[in-house]
Amino acid sequence: MADFNAVAKAFVDFYYETFDRNRQELTPLYRENSMLTFEGQQTVGAAAITEKLVNLPFQKVGHRISTTDAQPADFERGSILVSVTGLLLIDEEQNPQMFSQTFHLIPEGGSYWVFNDIFRLNYA
Amino acid sequence: MADFNAVAKAFVDFYYETFDRNRQELTPLYRENSMLTFEGQQTVGAAAITEKLVNLPFQKVGHRISTTDAQPADFERGSILVSVTGLLLIDEEQNPQMFSQTFHLIPEGGSYWVFNDIFRLNYA
After folding, report:
1. How confident is the model over A99-117, as pLDDT tens digits?
2. How many structural domains is chain A composed of?
3. Mutation to test the A interface, candidates B30, B38, B120, most A Cβ within 10 Å
4. Which CATH number do you get for residue B44?
5. What is the per-residue pLDDT for A123?
6. Cβ–Cβ below 8 Å for A100 and B123
């Protein structure tokens, strides 16, 4: 089995760097049966998920990762659960918002794609 | 397939009600290969996980759930991913702390057990 912590770290670095630079480029990480629940709104499929992410109502965005935790989610096929907490800076806002996000990564051809993706802002 | 949102809601209600009343009683929710990552510390197995939870350094604890999101994590065996955000009140503290927690639930005999459990406090 691949080192799930190393996979999680590499995925998280790549995902948020890409998100902050050009979220259109996240499409290849999703498949037709991928699911995104973003602030309670459910979207299914790579095309719909990318459209959802690209149309989020901000131009500039920066993610600062606070914690990344990973666990094997399935010993047979080697899928990995990744849970992230961090801070989000949007456009010209000075105050970051806290967020948490969970990914379920499925191995395929030496790489991983996102089957499950759940995002929430954290309010006090 | 069971209604994964209904399963998630019932699980979350039961889990935190039990946690806040008597966390020793959470043992039956875990199995020998269950994993808990609590604030970055990894524990495996029902006995070790319960010991970890029971020995957390507080007497009274109350969870207030803000959001519960769920997705099917595996169409073949019907496992469910549940992501929770909420507030934690410990002992006589007046200021709640934000937390996020992710569970991966496996169906078995008409019920579900926890294979993956990742908990984090969220700091600004």
Report:
1. 999 999 999 998 999 999 9
2. 1
3. B120
4. 3.10.450.50
5. 80
6. no
Taking the C-alpha atoms of residue A124 and residue B113, their distance in angstroms, rounded to an integer, is 30
SS (H, E, C) chain A: CCCHHHHHHHHHHHHHHHHHHHHHHHHHHEEEEEEEEECCEEEECHHHHHHHHHCCCCCCEEEEEEEEEEEEEECCCCEEEEEEEEEEEECCCCCCEEEEEEEEEEEECCEEEEEEEEEEEECC
Boundaries of domain holding B9: 4-122
Whole-number Å distance between alpha carbons of A97 and A117:
19
DSSP symbol at B2: -
Q: Which two tokens stand for residue A22?
A: 């050009």
Give the ipTM.
0.94
Chain A residues close to B66, C-beta within 8 Å:
122-123
Please give the Cα distance from B15 to B64 (Å, whole number): 12
Return the residue in A38, A116, A121 with the most chain B beta carbons within 10 A, the one to mutate for interface testing. A116
